[in-house]
Design brief:
It is built from ten helices and five strands. It is of the alpha+beta class. Among the domains are: about 40-120, Arc Repressor Mutant, subunit A (Orthogonal Bundle), CATH 1.10.10; about 135-215, Glutaredoxin, CATH 3.40.30. Helix 5 crosses helix 6 (about 100-110) and helix 6 crosses helix 7. It is globular.
């Protein structure tokens, strides 16, 4: 390996030193809480849309969500072009995209219901039916599979007491397989709602599940092992859940 041409203390990849906290790496202190109305219009369509809070009966769209929907429309040349972020917003509010939700989005964007359903059913990241508060997606593609992903998947099913794709009786968990989550360098990669968990092993699954049961979809601190390959728990900015009424 060639010698680095300069030393940049601010670039961990340059010096091989990782002394930043998880919060500093993810920028939580800088980002803070994202306003429901979307803040600046340029960021209105970039919110995480797989959240712990799910309200299938919430209205589409009212209050701050109506404001954000209107901001989203300003970012695209046609209403049709705004379909994906509109569906993202709908899932953020309701937790899944039902046929009724698709019809309502079609109405708001002046599109046919058939067109919206064709788009929504193409993408696996849109939940077509209600899921648990914690949607657990275990990557079983080649890199993760070679590093024990199948065992990790079975461990999640065991400790959540569910079968593949079904929701637990307490509505807390739904566990599914996922195609590549783009975390091939940190197998096994698991996505729980909008949060990534890297280097997950079978032994760590009970701790993750127990934490989610007791603390919700928040930051899971790594254990105290000295092993440098322990699970890295990704953190995303906190979001306020939907406030719509039935």
């Amino acid at each position: 390996m060639s010698k680095i041409p300069f030393r940049n203390p601010g670039w961990a990849g340059n010096v091989g030193e990782y002394k930043l906290t998880e919060e500093q790496v993810r920028g939580i202190d800088f980002v803070g809480v994202r306003p429901l109305e979307g803040g600046h219009a340029a960021a209105a369509s970039t919110y995480p849309f797989m959240l712990e809070a799910k309200d299938p009966g919430a209205p589409l769209f009212e209050g701050p969500y109506q404001t954000r929907f209107e901001k989203i429309l300003t970012r695209y040349p046609t209403k049709q072009a705004a379909l994906l972020p509109a569906l993202n917003l709908a899932q953020e509010v309701r937790g899944h995209i039902s046929p009724e939700t698709m019809d309502r989005v079609a109405q708001l964007l002046e599109l046919s219901s058939a067109y919206v359903r064709g788009v929504a059913t193409f993408y696996t990241m849109y939940n077509k039916r209600p899921v648990g508060r914690h949607l657990v997606q275990v990557c079983t593609n080649i890199s993760c599979n070679l590093c024990g992903a199948q065992d990790v998947l079975e461990a999640f099913l065991k400790h959540t007491n569910t079968e593949m794709g079904e929701t637990s009786l307490d509505r807390a968990f739904t566990v599914i397989e996922a195609e590549c989550l783009a975390g091939c360098g940190f197998p096994t990669c698991v996505q729980i709602n909008s949060r990534y968990y890297e280097n997950v092993t079978v032994d760590e699954v009970p701790r993750i599940v127990a934490h989610l049961r007791g603390n919700g979809d928040g930051f899971v601190p790594p254990d105290n092992r000295d092993d440098a390959t322990h699970t890295k728990f990704a953190v995303d900015p906190p979001s306020t859940g939907p406030e719509g009424e039935e």
